[in-house]
Design brief:
By secondary structure, this protein is mainly alpha-helical. It is 72% helix and 4% strand. It has a single domain (2-156), classed as Four Helix Bundle (Hemerythrin (Met), subunit A).
Length: 157
């Protein structure tokens, strides 16, 4: 399946991407900090002059997903690959990291579930308290694994 994305130039071998490995990881960390800040907004609405009915729940999850996505791009960059789509990134992760058992399949499946839910939420503007906790619970499991996978991978090279 990865060949389809290579043929469509959604995934390309580009050794210059190796120079961006740390930048992607830094962006992932920055997204985690942003997620943490957004998750605390509700406690400080009065101080920040934010309307009571406003919620940041959706953005907490979206920014959390992008933290994972940037970690995934970092892993691919380390191999010298550039991805132009979320689907191509996911397929490449499976090909290079799940099949080689560097990333547990269960964590990859959770990443995929989050990715698909984000697409669903963004497409249909459907977001609820239940979805927020469902995604955050999955996010916490998956992102930690991505970070550990990345650091383990760095030790190999």
């Amino acid at each position: 399946m990865i060949e389809i994305f290579i043929r469509k130039k959604q995934l390309m071998k580009d050794d210059s991407m190796k120079n961006l490995t740390k930048s992607y990881l830094g962006k992932s960390r920055s997204n985690l900090i942003t997620m943490e800040i957004l998750s605390k907004v509700d406690k400080h609405k009065t101080l920040l002059a934010i309307p009571k009915e406003h919620t940041t729940d959706e953005w907490v999850v979206v920014v959390g997903y992008y933290a994972m996505y940037m970690s995934a791009l970092s892993l691919l960059a380390k191999l010298g690959y550039k991805s132009k789509s979320h689907t191509a990134t996911s397929v490449a992760l499976e090909e290079f990291f799940v099949k080689s058992k560097m990333l547990e399949k269960a964590h990859f499946i959770n990443f995929e579930k989050i990715r698909m839910k984000i697409v669903q939420f963004r497409t249909y503007s459907v977001f609820s308290y239940f979805h927020h906790f469902f995604l955050l619970r999955m996010f916490c499991k998956v992102h930690h694994t991505f970070q550990l996978t990345f650091y383990s991978f760095l030790l190999l090279f």
